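INFO  loader      accepted 1 record
INFO  loader      residues=225
INFO  predictor   begin
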Amino acid sequence: MKAEWIVRRGCPDRLLFFNGWGMDRRVADWLVSAWADEGRDIAVLYDYSDLALPAWLREAIAEADSIDLVAWSLGVWAASNAGLARIDRAVAINGTPIPVDTERGIPPEIFTGTLESWNDANRKRFERRMMGGVSAEIVEAVRSDRSAADQQAELRSIGEAAARFSTEPAASWKFSKALIGGRDLIFTPENQRRSWREAEVPVTEIAEMPHFPFTHIAGWRELFA
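INFO  predictor   done
INFO  writer      dumping tokens
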């Protein structure tokens, strides 16, 4: 996977933000501009064609006093399978550890249909479903610069990896809580509830929140409250 610092001051406390599928650092850059400064180093992770963490990030994690994690959408699955041995607090938003599943993730037929039909036109339709009432200004600010072909290749890799990992042990750490958007059209609220209930992870629901959640959250501090 790809990883970049979006805030780097040499702070002993670190936050890892596992982005959604198809995204790049633009969402994280917007969050840093829109949310209050947390006073810690923040890294964004994206493009889950390969789940291996960069060596420099592993070193940064090993040296940190504390590690918090925020994962959104398919980033929830990626975080769970990235081989992270140490996480102090972790929050999942509008995703589950089982991304392709009829009852606990995205139904297989929908996942496959999205993968096989992905192009620029369907990408725009997907963005409308994902953003659900978010202002055009913010949509433009966070829209990924990656090509549709690049996003499709990533989604194919995710599907193949999810099938391989389906019977393997989960991460050694556990999500502290999950946030569910009542207007999520990608991971349905029902499937999210079922997945987190089985995982015994506490849930907070935000009724009006679409799949893109960040205009319904006040900042990093609120996530860990």
